[in-house]
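Our consortium's second objective concerns turning raw sequence data into structural hypotheses that experimental partners can test. To show how far this objective has progressed, the report includes one record in full. It was chosen at random from the queue rather than selected for favorable results. The single chain below, 192 residues long, was entered without modification.
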Amino acid sequence: MFSGIVEAIGKVVRTALPKVEIQVPKNWKNIHVGESISVDGVCLTVVKWQDTRITFDVVDETEKKTTLGNLNAGSVVNLERSLQPNARIGGHFVAGHIDGVGKIYRRAKQRVQEILEIETPDGLDAYMAPKGSVAVDGVSLTLGPVGSKSFTVYLIPHTVQNTTLGAKKVGEKVNIETDILAKYVVQYLKNR
């Protein structure tokens, strides 16, 4: 379980799927084999840790259903270690289970904020409501307007500077995880 508050940006050193090796900051210590780490919003398990490099396995399903299959050496990714039971949750509960891949449809700057409009994969709009939560490439964001084909989020300068979303361009794909609570509510209502 994660909070969607990105802790670092990592750099892909090598990809030879199913293995992906990522360079992490020097201050990341005590990484354990078997630990879960969010990589661009995808929950992955550490299979090897050496100095500042972490290796993960990316299974076929993850490769097909997320943007991780498009990673190359030099790609940058958002990283977050899993929550500790006594941690503050600055974002929202993020499971690291991607619901779909969206595409940045529009990007605009308005005063200090950046506006991203993202095309919504079919059916995900049912789990989104204005002022609700969504994770985009693992970043916890508040939803602005939501339509049947797209949704809007607003990036503050801190998010632009400290996550990979600051460099994303129109046409680029992003991992989307809808709010876990919305999923449970919709599922409950479907089964009534």
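The partners drew two points from this record. The longest strand covers residues 100-110. The first helix runs from residue 60 to 65. Both points have been shared with the crystallography group to help prioritize constructs.
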